[in-house]
Specification:
The structure is a single chain. The protein is mainly beta and 181 residues long. The chain is built from two helices and nine strands. The longest helix is centred in the first third of the chain and has 22 residues.
């Protein structure tokens, strides 16, 4: 049968146990203070972000020349610009107690077509915030692509798009969808 705890304590050198008890008693308030520093009412994890989706029917763009005198058509030789949205990335952070600050960027892969007469094009894209079937906000942006000499393809990322979404404890950022096209 093992010896009771009090018997084992007597095996320690006299005074060592008392010194350790004093050190522990001195450190205990410090540990309680340090442990309390990290406690707050705010969530410790990053807030939930909206789900992002690229609308398939609005992800691709093909522009053809519009000059009927030049033989406008929809043949590959009539293409001025081709492109597609390649991705959406971003971050979320709580701006205030009831507001979520969403920052998103959109990636593009753009190709200058054989019918292009310019090395610069403006490409429109939109970002919409929806909740269920309801569109809450939709904004149209433009990205400018410059094709240097001997380059007919560019990969670009848009400037940051900032959105402020209302949130509550019952309605997080995950209750929204961010649609791009």
């Amino acid at each position: 049968m093992p010896a009771p705890f009090s018997d084992r304590r007597s095996a320690w050198p006299k005074g060592l146990f008392q010194a350790r008890r004093f050190q522990f008693a001195a450190i205990l308030p410090l540990l309680a203070c340090v442990a309390g520093c990290g406690l707050s009412n705010e969530d410790k994890f990053a807030p939930a972000c909206p789900r992002t989706s690229i609308i398939a029917s609005a992800a691709d763009l093909t522009r053809f020349r519009a000059d009927p005198a030049a033989g406008a058509g929809e043949d590959v030789t009539d293409m001025v610009l081709g492109g597609r949205i390649t991705g959406v990335s971003g971050t979320c952070q709580r701006a205030e107690e009831d507001t979520l600050d969403v920052t998103a960027t959109v990636g593009f892969d753009l190709t200058r077509g054989p019918a292009s007469r310019s090395r610069t094009e403006d490409v429109p894209f939109f970002v919409a915030v929806v909740q269920g079937e309801q569109i809450l906000d939709k904004r149209v942006f433009r990205i400018r692509v410059d094709f240097p000499a001997n380059t007919d393809r560019q990969r670009l990322t848009s400037e940051e798009v900032h959105l402020l979404l209302p949130i509550t404890r019952a309605k997080s950022g995950a209750s929204y969808d961010l649609l791009v096209g």
